[in-house]
Amino acid sequence: MKKSDFHFDLPPELIAQAPLAERSASRLLLVPPGEGAFEDRGITDLPDLLQPGDLLVFNDTRVIPARVFGHKPSGGRVEILIERLLPGNEARAQLGASKPSRPGTRITLDGGGEAEVLGRDGAFYLLRFDVDGALATWLERAGQLPLPPYIRREPGADDSARYQTVFARNTGAVAAPTAGLHFDEPLLDRLRARGVGFGHVTLHVGAGTFQPMRVDDIHEHRMHSEWLNVGADLVAQVRATRAAGGRVIAVGTTVVRALESARQGGALVDGELQPFAGETQIFIFPGYRIRSVDALLTNFHLPESTLLMLVSAFSGRERILAAYAHAVQARYRFFSYGDAMLLFPSTPA
């Protein structure tokens, strides 16, 4: 299977550059199971599309202001994009500079303090930050929100709130779990009144999510590593939901990746999900059967991306590409600040 099997043509003007005035104002493309016709709905229709006893699973990761700037002793400008916070005010990061940075190089930071290059970790640099207080706290004051590369503007005042979900609580991501951005408190209240339950996992989305696939044969691709936690409380909710005949609905591909990683890494007992915390490099593409969820709410994804391959594994490649063609014709808004789809699997979980 080739990367080009997941190509589609997208007019650039359909790439959403800013959020709508209200989180829940986005459109929703309903992609029912089988050959059912696509339906153009709205996110506010979600309570009517779900059933009492269903469980929505959200990713509660919180995006850090992970982009900072500084200069080397030579005066050369440096852009630092933190990939992951590490103990001891250290971080794994990408460095944007005119020349590679050697171990021992000290970068004077615009926000105060310095960062020292310790070495390399694959495609990333290891840095130690000498700043006022804990690095995570300093970033909240001195860092800049790392908007995706296809948003062609600098972050504004609204992005600090709108590029976070309303349930974000565990700091560590450098990109938002974008399907969750559609939920505001009034919509959550309506879902509760409908009898829909809420559960949470944590998967800290890394900057690697925006990296293009560099091989044509998708079997040769190796995913970047991300940290996740599927806790015992969520596992109990999933079991109770399934036992009562309810459906488990993932809010975003990161939730699918977390639950499927837990299925693989958590040592299934009697075929049931187990708690799991740790790293994942799971790569889901057609041929892989997703068993952890019964439906998936997700935004639209980039052509030839691993996330487009994941949703194709869930609902079928031809079905997904047909839905994307419909979305383009109907002028849906694409990517992080765009509209959403509610997908059902090609085969039942």
UniProtKB/TrEMBL annotation:
Is this entry keyworded Chloroplast? no
Naming one, the record's GO cellular component terms include: cytoplasm
Sorted alphabetically, the Gene Ontology BP terms of this entry are: tRNA queuosine(34) biosynthetic process
Whether Disulfide bond counts among this entry's keywords is: no
EC number(s) from the headed UniProt entry = 2.4.99.17
What family is this protein classified in? Belongs to the QueA family.
* HAMAP family for this protein: QueA (MF_00113)
Annotated protein name in UniProt:
S-adenosylmethionine:tRNA ribosyltransferase-isomerase
